[in-house]
Amino acid sequence: MNQTSPPLSTLLPPLICGTATFNTQYNPDPYALPTTAIVHEALSLGVRAFDTSPYYGPAEDLLGAALDTPFVHGNFPRRDYFLLTKVGRVSGDEFDYSARWVRHSVQRSLERLHTTYLDVVYCHDVEFVSPAEVLEAVRELRRIRDETGVIKFVGISGYPVSLLAERAELVLEATGEPLDIVMSYANYTLQNTQLASTGLPRLKAAGVGVVPNASVLGMGLLRRKGVPIGAQGDFHPSPQELRMAIQAASKWCDDQDIQDKRIEKVAIRWALENWMHEGASVGSTGDPASGIPWIREKVEKSGGIKLGVSVMGVSNLDELHETMRVWRSILDGRDNGEKTALRAGRSTEDHIWSLQRQEQVATLAQGIRKTLGEWLDFTWPSPPPGFVNKRSAPDVPAQLPTPAASPDQLSKPVMPDKWNEDERSVGEI
């Protein structure tokens, strides 16, 4: 089959709200987070895409509950926002890429998210399974796409850049069709830019349409207070020596005579701003959430071209508002950014301030990277040494264990009728 038309790069918004934070890895109690308020406010501010996964504990349920409300139904038609989820990762040490589990996982995500279709489905953390398993899952997702339409685009996600490129090359060679999308995390940050230096040339050559950059803080590594400690304790795979180097860079930032100098503030803006440019060739022309009112935007209508796609997770409304402030300031500083600022109800001063902030961030980023020294572009092993996949595929799909147990609050299937004809389960399609 040919790739889905029109291509994802003409549709996907360049700013995606990630929901990995709706999980016990990043927060002690995700059910205590204002997740519905976050989703509603994000939509109100122009965010039109949400990334999630069954592996993120209760994230799919929480996101689905937030979307299945009168506020969303009355103001944001389903066709106006994108849902991206994943299959394959069952728990920290369990992966199931079988066609049967893929079908079960897709069915469950549709139910949890209260939707009749998924815009993007990734194979989650492909480095943990064999190339053959990745091919099986990709082929099954594409079969579902072609026969039912409940999936629109298919991709892979993971950490090691070279392996992501290898799997993208394999899929193209084995199937004759490139992946629509490949998401990398923690590989385009102040500390590590391998996604741009080594990943992009190979991913583009493999025909990948869109490459989102996720986890611009390196899973919380680039923070003044260190890596996040949720209910699962210290899950971060970085070595202590790297953490110490980050803290030294953070202290260097604190000693500078510049406003907004905290390392996380610098790291977020630097990654969003630079990936917007460096990732543009594998970016998108969807709604940029610039703040221009009453327009179903495309980037060309707001004075620009394709923008590199970034995924940003937040845990509260303050973090969401700060993310949107930074994102729009970055847009204000682009070519024709003054026009964007004015059309969005901001001012010429906002455009000028953005250009000044670019210079400040560039100066701070240079100092941070110099301080990191030998730790620049360091990556931790994934999977870790000695990893063994403990999954043994069950005869019948069971309740999915995740890092944070999430209640199955939904019971009614939302697949098209032909998915459940003759009362077959999704695992028997």
Notes on the protein architecture:
There is one protein chain. With 429 residues, the chain is α/β, with parallel strands linked by helices. It contains twelve helices and ten strands. It has an eight-stranded parallel barrel, surrounded by five helices. Strands 4-5 form a two-stranded antiparallel sheet. β7, α6 (161-175) and β8 form a beta-alpha-beta unit. The longest helix has 25 residues, at 348-372.
Q: Quote the distance from N terminus to C terminus.
A: 20 Å
Order of helix and strand elements from N to C terminus: EHEHHEEEHEHEHEHEHHEHHH
Quaternary form: single chain
- Largest sheet entry: 8 strands, parallel, barrel
Give the topology.
Layout: E1 15-18, H1 35-44, E2 49-51, H2 59-67, H3 70-75, E3 82-87, E4 89-91, E5 94-95, H4 99-112, E6 118-123, H5 131-148, E7 151-158, H6 161-175, E8 181-185, H7 194-205, E9 213-214, H8 240-254, H9 263-278, E10 310-313, H10 317-332, H11 337-343, H12 348-372
Parallel strand pairs: 1-2, 1-10, 2-3, 3-6, 6-7, 7-8, 8-9, 9-10
Antiparallel strand pairs: 4-5
Structure at a glance:
With 429 residues, this protein is of the alpha/beta class.
Keywords:
12 helices, alpha/beta, eight-stranded parallel beta barrel, 429 residues, globular, disordered C terminus, 38% helix, 10 strands, 10% strand, single chain, two-stranded antiparallel ribbon
